[in-house]
Amino acid sequence: MSVLAGAQRVHAGDGPRGTDRFSVRDLLTEATYGIGARPGRLVLTILGTVLGIASVVVTVGLAQTAAGQINRQFDAVAATQVVAAPATTRGADGTERANARLPWDAEARAVRLAGVEAAGTLAEVDVEGAAVTAVPVNDPSQPAGVAIPVVATSPGLLDAVRGEVVTGRYFDSGHDDRADRVVVLGARAAERLGVHRVDRQPSVFIGETSYTVIGIVDGVQRRGELVDAVILPQGTARADFGLASPEQLQIRIAVGAGPVVGEQVPVALDPNAPDGFKVQVPPTGSKVRESVQADVNAIFLALGAVALLIGGLGIANVTLLSVMERVGEIGLRRALGATRRDIGAQFVVESVVVGLLGGLIGAAVGVAAVVVVSAVQSWTPILDTVVVLLSALAGGVIGLLAGIYPALKAAAIEPIAALRGGI
Predict the structure, then answer these.
(1) Cβ–Cβ contacts within 10 Å for residue 203, how many?
(2) Phi/psi at 396 (nearest 5 deg)?
(3) What one-character-per-residue DSSP string does 238-249 give?
(4) Model confidence over 357-388: pLDDT tens digits?
(5) Within a 10 A sphere around the Cβ of 65, how many other Cβ atoms?
(6) Which run of H or of E encompasses 421?
(7) Where does residue 91 rank: exposed (0-12), middle (13-18), buried (19+ CB within 10 A)?
(8) So what's the pLDDT on residue 18?
(9) Which listed residue, of 1, 260, 307, 358, carries a Cα 20 to 30 Å from 317's Cα?
(10) Is 162 helix (H, G, I), strand (E, B) or coil?
(11) How many whole angstroms separate alpha carbon 59 and alpha carbon 296?
(12) CA 406/CA 179 separation, integer angstroms
């Protein structure tokens, strides 16, 4: 039907012999007919392109999404945490000895540095075997339970390790300076001691000494062992248990401030002997992100390239097969005045349209895959719209490249030889 319609338009034309008598509309009509004549073959033809384009979109989308997720997780904890402690040396007897002591005001010295958002000191307290209980009576008939550790901290530690107060409050500098006998319980320690609220000023006993519970903490992202401990102000631990000095300084920093803070902290702690302290600074997140993203890109882009190659070969093979099947039609169109350029352009347009369909569908499938994976993992999907558009257009480019050889073969068919073979 499309060939007869073309014949009618040719006879109706008044152009000179030898000129191109087929318009762009005729070209699009013939290409559309050729594409839609075999829907089943069309689906199989674009499948390879769909898979290839989808692989590329998924590669870029998941790489960007994963990079964003890595940024959030890495920056939330690891990339914003600096730990300072006295450097140690091993003696002749094999024991390690500290080369310096953290000052009692290490927290105040640290928070004055640029890039430091919070800081706090902590140390384990030696209670010399004293039991931690919720009642002053020691019943020897009761089986011995697991000892609850006692830790001393400065007031700013909870913020530095990203903990939160479940009930009550954390002690402040006033409690610390006065050596008040108050404690804060970790959530699991409070559960073991049977303390669930602090509005009635409950007490716990370390040995025979009573300490008022003023708060319960949980959700500690760094130094998670604090939820199992009884936490004293370091001034109280110094007065009651002879604590010599803090053992560790925890610092929460702004993202990217690690190298600068790592250099400044030892000087702030002891300007005369900064080498007496070791500082653990987080590695830069860019190298980690680049490494992960490069690995993901390499794998998926390789798969996408293979799928695109298969898709392009599929389009070329099917277009070449279409040329062979439509030799009679080609001969008739040539006899009616179609030029070699008309015939070649028809098959190139068919290949481009098939490739573009595959690109559009593949890009849509890739976007859907990124969204679904992100939803399952509770991530925020990140995908550049320019990449999606370019991927869809890449399908048309693949179709163009795949259709060049079949188009040349079709354009080379002579009308006489084609018509002798029949329609």
Answers:
(1) 16
(2) -65, -40
(3) HHHH---S-SEE
(4) 888 998 898 899 889 988 888 878 888 888 78
(5) 20
(6) helix 415-421
(7) exposed
(8) 44
(9) 1
(10) coil
(11) 7
(12) 90
Give how far the C-alpha of residue 315 lies from the chain's centroid of Cα atoms, to the nearest Å.
36
Decide: residue 83, CB within 10 A, 0-12 exposed, 13-18 middle, 19+ buried: middle
d(CA 43, CA 33): 15
Instruction: Give kind and range of the element (H or E) at residue 234.
Output: helix 234-241
Residues 210, 186, 167, CA angle at the centre, nearest 5°?
Answer: 85
DSSP state of 212: E
Angle (CA) 68-71-75 rounded to 5° is 155
- For residue 128, count other CB atoms closer than 10 A to its CB: 9
Residue partners of 383: CB distance under 8 A and separation at least 6 = 57, 60, 61, 64, 65, 367, 370
Series of mean pLDDT values for 10-residue runs along the chain (423 residues):
43 43 67 68 73 78 71 61 89 76 94 94 92 73 67 95 93 95 95 90 91 94 90 95 94 86 93 91 63 62 69 75 77 79 83 86 89 84 83 85 85 75 52
Q: What is the pLDDT, as a whole number, of residue 257?
A: 85
Strands (E), 236-365: 248-253, 277-280
Task: Report which of 124, 211, 221, 210 is spatially closest to residue 175, judged by C-alpha positions.
Answer: 211
**Which amino acid, residue 346?**
Q
SS3 category, 223: coil
**Alpha carbons 169 and 121: distance in angstroms, whole number:** 18
Output the six-digit token pair for 189: 């320690």
Say if CB 8 and CB 2 are below 8 A apart: no
Question: Which residues have a Cβ under 8 Å from the Cβ of 371 and sit 6 or more positions away?
Answer: 381
**Looking up tokens 């073991």, which residue turns up?**
192
As a whole number of angstroms, the distance between CA 418 and CA 40 comes to 27
Q: What is the pLDDT of residue 234?
A: 95
Residue 348 burial class via C-beta count within 10 angstroms: exposed 0-12, middle 13-18, buried 19 and up: buried
